[in-house]
Amino acid sequence: MFASCVSAASARILSRLCALVLVVALGLGSELRVRVRLADGLVTEEVLEADNERDSISLEFKQGDGTLITFVADFKQDVKIFRALILGELERGQNQYQALCFISRLSRNEIIPSESMARLRQKNPQAIRLAEERRGLEQLEMSAAVNLSQASQLSSHIHNMCSEAREAIYTRESDVRHWLDKGVDGSIFEVLPQTTEAPSFQACHSTKDLWQPCLCTYSLRLEWYPCQLKYCRSRDTTGKGSTYKCGIKSCSKGYHFTYYVPQKQLCLWDEET
Fold it and tell me: How far apart are CA 220 and CA 269, in angstroms?
């Protein structure tokens, strides 16, 4: 399996990179646009959408280098999906875009439910939001590839999210074991070469030959997302106490993915500095 360089003729990808528009189905979802400051100091707009019918949340934003990051939390299947549409380096032989997808299990305490997300509003849309909690970096070794044609067994969102990635859809061994235990067909997965099997594999950032296999890394950060509900206490006229939802807690979290590529040409961002 290898990372996919997407055709420059893909008008759909181009329009998403330029416009950052998410279509909201009337009556099914709710959209929130939030201004956040990235690690490089630039301000970007996150588009968060809740879909109550599909019980999911999506978050999308463009990085300073033009990369489009999309995150989807599928509560029905307890799956989270990250997609990166990375601008290619044309002068180094790449196509216009390169797409990556990373899939793993979703924990229930990672982000607020879709019905709560659908009710979120902000008083000052022009304000630049800062997360209340900066969560630790999560290291994920993506040791298996996912077959796109069968990926709907994991989540109905994967086909639309990852169709541009084609053969660059990755997951972890621990997640594969979990899904196999739940009855998912094992043919959907392909185990990638591991460092234990091929100790000669180097990190791509230290590999000089563009056509040699290596271990690629890719990092991203969700700078602002609603990670928890806040509850307040009140008392009625008799003095009896009760709790009610009174807001959200926002978080920021980084993810560091490591995975095998058959040639460094598919991992040019991972350069030694």
Answer: 12
Spatial CA neighbour of 78 closest among 62, 95, 55, 58? 55
Contacts of 177 by beta carbon, 8 Å cutoff, 6+ apart: none
Q: Which two tokens stand for residue 55?
A: 């019980």
Distance CA 38, CA 43 (A): 6
Alpha-carbon separation of residue 251 from 62, 166, 186, 189 (angstroms): 18, 31, 35, 32
Averaged pLDDT for residues 121-143: 93
Terminal Cα-to-Cα distance of the chain (whole angstroms): 27
Question: Dihedral sign, CA of 25, 14, 18, 40?
Answer: positive
Residues linked to residue 46 through DSSP beta bridges, in sequence order: 34
91-106 pLDDT per residue, tens: 776 677 899 999 999 9
pTM score, two decimals? 0.84
Joined together, the tokens standing for residue 99 give 């797409």
